[in-house]
Amino acid sequence: MLKYIVFLSLVILAALSCTKNTDLTYSQDIAPIIHKNCTSCHRSGGAAPFPLTTFQHVNRKKNTILAVTQSGLMPPWPADRNYSHFLGERYLSQDDKDKIKEWIEGGAPLGDTKTMAKPPLYDQYSNIGTPDTTVWFDSIKVIGNSRDKFFIATLPIVLNEKKYVRAMEFLPNENNLVHHMNGRLLNYEDTKKASITNGLRILDLEVDEETYIKQFDALKLTNDDGTRPVQINSVVNYLPGVQAQLYPRGIGGFTMHKKSILIADDIHFGPIPQDKWDHSRVNIFYTDSPPKRPIREVMLGTNGASKIIPPLVIPPNQITQHTTFLKIPDDISILTINPHMHLLGKSFKAYALTPKQDTIRLIHIPRWDFRWQYFYTFPTMLKIPAGSVIYVEAEFDNTSKNQNNPYNPPQEIRERYEFGGAGMRTTDEMLQFIITWLPYQAGDEHISLLVKEDKSE
Ligand code: HEC
Question: Which residue, 47, 210, 286, 433, shows the most beta carbons closer than 10 Å to its own?
């Protein structure tokens, strides 16, 4: 009998702890958090693989949602917010995290739907306005073998006259396919290249070395005499859920010649289980005024202005540390920074040391995630005084504990140089720090880089 009573009270206790009650409801408390932090990616046609726009969606995924929100994996923002701040930071406040936890553990009640807010509306074809022109890359077939894929894609653009561009925006046709792209513009002189349309358009970066070298030549990116055209880096970048870069008027912009080739260098597709076709578009926003303060770019590390020490050769079963640094001769104003490594990246830190030995913090990424390579824009321009040295410290993990290691067992991985950039091949590694900047002008540190909804041109 006593045994029976003990058993019964245990059952009652267990039942009580499972249905711990909560006053929080989806309608009143949780939907606003999800709408603010999740549905920009988790929606139909959005960047994430599944929507979270209804109670049913959220309820079905609640256990994973609990895990990824508490661990900080979602919303994705790998930079350490205790180190430095940027525009558009994605994070849940402790209060929001606690609410999600309490609500899910309390049985995830729906509540009264009459007063529930609707998820925000999103424009499928542009996040920044009505483009002047839209151009398309060739379709790319993405094989469904559940592995990450990397390509180079080229898009020749012929104009009647040279034009000034305020912004370019890349949009995949099926959002959750493309995970990352970085676009450069090759501007040709009319007389130096007869045709820009006779090159190969797509290069799979997973082919063997010989095929790769042949196909890279077949992209036909050089002038007819073999010299290189003028190149503008980072004219367009894409990451799921990230709005195209739009700087305040008078800052940035570039010129596009009558003949140019947009090259998506590292277009990265996430793993999918079935074959799919991607057909990505590029929206172009022109402006009548020539760029007043055109953006400059400097790159540290691979292919850049500073050496990597020790050289980027990562032996199997090792974790290695590397650094690279660059002295800044004149006062500059930094706008945006982009740390870049590949699959072996482990951590990344960058800062400037002024001639007075003051430290200006740039960025710290304690746990590198190659899926979330943001271009981080400072809230206001960041002045770096002349004579400062910018330091980068990076760690790479070539052990089998690194889940993204492309080889099992691990093999030696190194950086490798090619025309205009080292490729995102699984056999390559990179350490790059890209800085977009302007020559400093008095008052720059007070200029906000936040562009308010500016959909009219
Ligand atoms: C910037 C876009 C973006 C935002 C914002 C975002 N997600 Fe995600 N989420 C993704 C992508 C993309 C994936 C697919 C996994 C990947 O690529 O890393 C994902 C995956 C997930 C997963 C599955 C994880 C797994 O291990 O299976 C959950 C759950 C999730 N997100 C919940 C959320 C929640 C909750 C929020 C808001 C608090 C949120 N996400 C905000 C893009 C986003």
Answer: 433
pTM of the predicted protein model: 0.86
How far is residue 127 CA from its own chain's centroid? 16
268 CB within 6 A, ligand 1: no
Distance 135 CA to ligand 1 centre (A): 29
| Domain spanning 133-293, CATH class | mainly beta
Split the chain (457 residues) into runs of 10 and give each run's mean pLDDT. 55 50 94 95 83 96 97 95 95 97 96 89 84 94 86 95 94 78 94 94 84 88 94 87 82 94 88 89 94 92 93 97 98 96 95 98 95 91 98 98 93 74 68 95 95 55
Give me the residue spans of the domains in the chain. Answer: 18-115, 133-293, 297-446
76 lines ligand 1 (CB under 6 A): yes
The CATH number for 297-446, chosen from 3.30.450.40, 3.30.750.24, 2.60.120.230, 3.40.50.300, is 2.60.120.230
Cβ proximity of 202 and 138 under 8 Å: yes
